[in-house]
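So, could you explain this one?
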Amino acid sequence: MASKEGGMAFSRKSYKLTSDAERSRVTGIVHEKLLSDYLHRVFASPDQGPAAATSRKPLNFQNLPEHLDQLLHVDKEEEESREQVEGRLGPSTVVLDHTGGFEGLLLVDDDLLGVSKGKWIYEVLISSQGLMQIGWCTINCRFNQEEGVGDTHNSYAYDGNRVRKWNVTTTNYGKAWAAGDIVSCLIDLDEGTLSFSLNGVSLGTAFENLSRGLGMAYFPAISLSFKESVAFNFGSRPLRYPFVKKAVVAGYRPLQDPPSASLVRAQRLLGCFRAVLSVELDPVEGRLVEKKSSEWQLQGQPTILLTLAHIFHHFASLLCEVYVVEAVLMSFLLGVVEAGPPEQAQTVVHHVLDLLWLFMEDYEVQDCLKQLMMSLLRLYRFSPIVPDLSLQIHYLRLTIAILSHEKSRKFLLSNVLFDVLRSIVFFYIKSPLRVEEAGLQELIPTTWWPHRSPREGKEEVREETSEERLRRRAYERGCQRLKKRIEVVEELQVQILKLLLNNKDDNGGEASRYIFLTKFRKFLQENASGRGNTPMLCPPEYMVCFLHRLISALRFYWDEYKASNPRTSFSEEAYVPPQIFYNGKVDYFDLQRLGGLLSHLRKTLKDDLASKANILIDPLELQATTMDDLDEDEEPAPAAAQSGLLSPPQRPMQALAVGGALPLPRPGWLSSPTLGRANRFLSTAAVSLMTPRRPLSASEKVKVRTLSAEQRTREDIEGSQWNEGLLVGRPPEEPEQPLTENSLLEVLDGAVMMYNLSVHQQLGKMVGVSDDVNEYAMALRDTEDKLRRCPKRRKDILAELSKSQKVFSEKLDHLSRRLAWVHAAVYSQEKMQDIYWLLRVCLRTIEHGDRTGSLFAFMPEFYLSVAINSYSALKNYFGPVHSMEELPGYEETLTRLAAILAKHFADTRIVGTDIRDSLMQALASYVCYPNSLRAVERIPEEQRIAMVRNLLAPYEQRPWAQTNWILVRLWRGCGFGYRYTRLPHLLKTKPEDANLPSLQSEGPSPTPCPSTLLQQHMADLLREGPDVAPSFLNSVLNQLNWAFSEFIGMIQEIQQAAERLERNYVDSRQLKVCATCFDLSVSLLRVLEMTITLVPEIFLDWARPTSEMLLRRLAQLLNQVLNRVTAERNLFDRVVTLRLPGLESVDHYPILVAVTGILVRLLVHGPASGTERATSVLLADPCFQLRSISYLLGQPEPPAPGTALPAPDRKHFSLQSYTDYISVEELGQVEQMLAHLTSASAQVAAASLVTQLCVSRTTTCLGRPLPHLLPCIDQHLMNNKDCFFCKATIVSVEDWDKAAHASATSSAA
């Protein structure tokens, strides 16, 4: 027998079973009667009874083929009946094709397979739970992008997304489906009914009285939305639910009939094989011995070998059929796994695999294993969640048994697991979307959720009652039961990875670990670059589970290697050495490095590579990498080589090529067209290595090349006496003793990359379940409070509240059980420790990389990103069940991360804008919380001072807004009225919005925690030199002027849009930018307040050359802000009154309190001489208005002439209304400041005339504007009716010169 595959011919292995030369020897192996009994026992006929044992024909290996043919004979009529099924139209094989040219529409189109009578069924696997309609249609149905299955006559569909059935009209039907569910579509054309089932449970009859008769046939059909996916099973594989519960399904047939003849033959051959495993020949006593299958061993007995050869001679071709593999072989192996302990099951599976490889052609075994793993993966992925997870456990145990077979494992790892299958599925534990079907009600009969009560915008956990305490403890016990069951599955998954990471199985080939590394790197590349097929990318939820299992297996092998090599390190001390980032041994694809593009770094840092890492880049090769076409010319011999130096013996092909006296020809692989342009530099650069820590010597130059992941061997990774493998090019700062095996370092590097790709994002998504619990708990508590307050006579309201209470309670029961699953599978203590370990790995890696100086730029950006994000996950995602403070070395880790953030947020070696912004934001978040802020204070003093110095650098040189956030957070809690954590004005008017994030308040942040230590560093630096303070403050004032001007311009546009008569909408992005500009203005004012408080002499000591100028600029800006904000019925006031969504943070309080804090520091707390200077500068500014200061204490402005009086009930802003946030002492200081300015204004007015330009204010004194101002005033009044400064509308203008002249004339008369 022969077959062809891939252009190559394969022939069946021949065992010469009946050759004349061997007949006598074969029949003489055992006694003829014993052999006959044995063969009859193995190849027993299905209808053979005990009475036939005496009359049966003796069997031997000469007549066995004839007997076996009779045993496997299937009636031809039965075999041909598949082609002649009444009521079925079309070919025997069902093919699913696109038709109609419309996206999302699929129909069976190849010869239109359909049914006209009888009972039929097909199954649909829901891969995504989006919008789709599944069912049946007739040939006359016409679909388009608007009308799909169920939207036309004679088409019927079930939609589990909207839980409805469709046939032109729609009604409620069935229940919601989820990804992984299987929908069975059943049609009974004898009775004219159509029904559906979900996961084997009938949903009832959906449609009746179907149109039937001559010319009517129905075809399976589906319409689905874009990017939705399903998988059909028309019968090419065994149906998952051939028997539907709660329904009579007798007589229903799949559209594609199973291969009945093959199944019969396969089942009979499997029975023969079982008999071989359970019966043993005892030639000494001449009898058959019964034994367990797990005790059977292949010991080379000729009788057994020849018997098995006859079996597999027929069985081999059958095991290449998909249906037979899943229905026969898979069922047999699963039965073995379920029947006995794992060790025995693994032994039997190994025997089966040994026999497959022994008696079948390699291509047949490979095809069989491929189909077997595909079926196994499909079963595991879509098996329902049961309370004890028994289905998942059995599938994983069978997977382990198969992968523990070395030859099978290497084949599957090389060709199937990553290339054909999405094998990451084996490491995923899917979350049950339907709690009742997952059995969580049995595991967790009692539910519980935290009870929180909002008060003044803060969530406080009230003391629990004894009943609540009992419920909580019962709930926790249920969670522990669930966790233990999940841990069983997780341990099996870790065992799979341990098998794949085995590096001791290199007998006769490459070890599994190095095959895994190649596939793993390719897997990372596909997911990192996005070049792969989108459906093939690993879903984030799979990646999370895979990462945790990989870390467990990695640490196991790491510590195991430490046990046998004491000089190496424990996994607790793991990190990735920096040379891996620049020696080209590990491919990082197109991922960004800290210093920019890799090709640029190689060129600009080639001297540092030579001096620090003993790596020399050939200038000729650097030049060659810039060319599109690489030539094949020979390289010139090195100067030292031309002088006649001898070359050592050459290594094997994969080893290093050592430079010698003769020029080396340029290898052809350098110009391979398969190399990507992004990696061409790595693949073509000639790198020379010298012995570390010794002067460069020409005789020690060694040529190496960078190999792709597929080309590398074990020696290229682990190294040898010739090279250090992945660790080649070790810098002087790195220790010489190895950390662990080099291959484990690459796995560790891949684990860090995995976290960066999608794990962190997925961890954040899963927090949504906890948020939902909190929201429903608050809603339930509010409902219960309303029930208690509702009068008994209002029975209608009581009934509605009771109904709401029941809905919320049921939803909380469901969510609390789901939350238990999430905490056990995603946020458990062990998972938290994995993320914490990964954080510490990144910290050590960054620290070691930083010691290499300029070579730090080669580190991929994702190491810093993972360090930042993993800390954020530990702090925000795993609480409150698990606290980061419970982790070992918690404070030390915080301090190390603080040192990294403080040093690298302004590191010139880091050029990427995104990573620099991430570092800045992480530092800003870090100083918000007491524990992390104290960690910043614990770093060495010189690092703290350097950090503050970078923060005080002029804002024009970097993202000033983020830097300002950090300075503000160091001050929050010390400023005037700056002790709030929620926006005070919202707590008064709209408490539900008080938690909105803003630069003014950190949302649900902890109590303000200012740092006096860092404030002192800031003060010392501002006093340090003559240029530090002026450059910093000028940049702050410039940015304040810009931010506030932009804010005013935006609210003008918003006000104009709001006053239009036609209906219009303000762009939400514009509102967001407007609010951001306001928040930035407030924060910049707070920085000025901090500066004046810490170093007042910068503004008040006029012996400094820039103090007066800074003070005048500050006074001008403060007066402009006050005039814009405090004017009654002005633009700011009108926009605040609108309370537009997105502008919740815009209010009088935040900005006026910040300005007040600056004025109080200048006019009340300063020395007498400083107060006098500040007062004179403030009053001399043309924009100063005393009424703006009075406005702070609620003293309204007198109405302008000709305007209406304000409404008597109009509320005026006043600091006195915020006594919860402003102390009595602070209010007294404001009153003192107002009295001081009132007195000083009166003195100035009495002493001299003041030119008044603000025409909307009551005139207190008269004066003549300077001549050059008169044309400006006239021009302004011709084009605008707003005041120069306060923007109030000008009602009338009077010429005081004419009035004075008329008065003088009348007096003279």
